[in-house]
Structures are given as structure tokens and as C-alpha cells.
Amino acid sequence: MPYFVLFYETVDDYVTKRAEYRPQHFELAREAHARGELLLAGALADPADGALLIFRSPDRASVEAFATRDPYVIHGLIRKWEVRPWTVVIGNDPAEPGPPPPAPAGR
User: Fold this and answer.
1) What stretches of 1-107 show up as alpha helix (H) in DSSP?
2) CATH hierarchy code of domain 3-86
3) How far apart are CA 9 and CA 7, in angstroms?
């Protein structure tokens, strides 16, 4: 099953503005995680100007549907969002194997 990355670009002062919508945002995220779709998610820091959410989903449309239902998006805390396919080469269930590790020195 393919991986997708959902990028969020947040509005200025997002950290303060999100408090009202945070419980609903987390509920949506926890539901997607419980279904096995949302694998990792979190805000970017220094500066706090975005977020990154990693999905494993049969198609892009389900990730886009998540974004359109997200209270942060609905209430204007997300200035821009984008879904991109992600080809995993190292880690859990890669799409293709990564390059072999280098041979130890002296051999």
C-alpha cells in the first residue's frame, strides 16, 4: 500500500490560535491512526510554521479527505496544504530496497 505525506503550512500565530480546535483535530487524527492510515504526525518547530503527516493509504483521495475534514483547515489555521506520494526506500515495508550498506573499511 502506498505512502503519502500531507504538508501543512500554518498561519502566523498558529500555536496560539489552534487551542480552540485542537481537541477536534486530535480526534480526527486518532481515528485515522486507529484505522492504520495515519502513521506519524506532528508540528514543525523553530519556526512553528507547518506540520507533517505521514499516511499509508490506498489512494491520495483519502488523505485529501482527511485534510478537508480537519478543523485546522476548516477554520483557516492552515494557509496551504499539499498531498504528495512518498516512495519509502529504507524503513518499514519499503517500496524498493535501498542501496547496500558500505563495506567495512580495510576489506
Assistant:
1) 14-17, 22-34, 60-69, 71-74
2) 3.30.70.1060
3) 7
Task: Kindly report, residue by residue over 17-60, the tens digit of the pLDDT.
Answer: 999 999 999 999 999 999 999 999 999 999 999 999 999 999 99
Tell me how far apart the alpha carbons of residues 95 and 101 are, in angstroms, rounded to a whole number: 18
Domain residue limits, the chain: 3-86
User: Rounded to two decimals, what is the model's pTM?
Assistant: 0.86
Q: In what order do the strands lie in the sheet with 38-43?
A: 38-43, 50-56, 3-10, 78-86
Compute and round to an integer the Cα radius of gyration of the chain.
Answer: 17
